[in-house]
């Protein structure tokens, strides 16, 4: 809490910001993260006095909304939580809860393992376009709610399905080619 009568953060006041002081303040700010950074910025701005946020924006290049948030944290004594994980676009599974299970229902009956059993990958002769079409026809999805074909393709890859026709195992030849020095090859050439 900041008390107006006794300024416990007024260790020194900034009358003029020299280039050395600006460099020091910006380097210190860049070493801090999150709420510590905002509190440092708020304390510096508080020591700049009246018009401090505008002056810090002009002379130091700091963001005034960050300064405003830091000043609110400094005055209230409550630190704001940063919700970085809440940002960004949510995966399609959160919007369409049953989508992955429906894709699994379509692809798994016709998928095959590698016939040589060298890998554990599953191969499917069905394309993402075909899965998209079957989701609309069989499962009742609409074009608006379904993701793009590219997204369905990436989900198929994440689920372990690869687009490939699986060929049959070819048996090895039992007879070997005759060697040029063998008697049979000499007799065949005559």
Explain the overall architecture.
With 190 residues, the protein is mainly α. It has two domains: 1-83, no CATH class; 92-163, no CATH class. Helix content is 48%, strand content 4%. The chain is built from nine helices and three strands; from the N terminus they run ααααααββααβα. The chain has helices at residues 19-31, 34-48, 52-60, 64-76, 92-95, 99-107, 128-138, 149-158, 183-189, and strands spanning 112-113, 122-124, 161-163. The chain has a three-stranded mixed sheet. β1 and β2 (122-124) form a beta hairpin. The protein starts with 18 loop residues before the first helix and ends with a helix.
Keywords for this entry:
3-stranded mixed beta sheet, 3 strands, disordered N terminus, 9 helices, mainly alpha, 190 residues, 48% helix
Task: Describe the structure concisely for a colleague.
48% of the residues lie in helices and 4% in strands. The protein has 190 residues and is mostly helical. It folds into two domains: 1-83, no CATH class; 92-163, no CATH class.
Strand percentage: under 5%
The major sheet is characterized as: 3 strands, mixed
- What letter string, H or E per element, gives the SSE order? HHHHHHEEHHEH
- The helix/strand class is mainly alpha
DSSP strand count: 3
Widest sheet: strand ordering: 1-2-3
């Amino acid at each position: 809490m900041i008390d107006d009568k006794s300024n416990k953060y007024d260790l020194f006041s900034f009358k003029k910001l020299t280039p050395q002081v600006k460099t020091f303040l910006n380097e210190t700010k860049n070493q801090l993260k999150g709420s510590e950074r905002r509190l440092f910025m708020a304390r510096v701005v508080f020591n700049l006095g009246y018009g401090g946020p505008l002056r810090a924006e002009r002379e130091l290049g700091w963001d005034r909304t960050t300064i405003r948030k830091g000043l609110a944290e400094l005055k209230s004594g409550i630190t704001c939580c940063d919700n970085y994980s809440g940002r960004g676009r949510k995966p399609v599974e959160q919007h369409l809860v049953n989508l992955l299970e429906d894709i699994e229902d379509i692809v798994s009956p016709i998928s095959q393992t590698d016939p040589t059993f060298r890998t554990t990958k599953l191969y499917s002769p069905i394309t993402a376009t075909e899965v998209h079409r079957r989701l609309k026809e069989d499962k009742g999805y609409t074009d608006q709610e379904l993701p793009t074909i590219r997204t369905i393709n990436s989900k198929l890859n994440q689920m372990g399905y690869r687009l490939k026709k699986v060929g049959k195992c070819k048996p090895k030849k039992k007879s070997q080619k005759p060697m040029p020095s063998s008697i049979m090859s000499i007799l065949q050439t005559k």
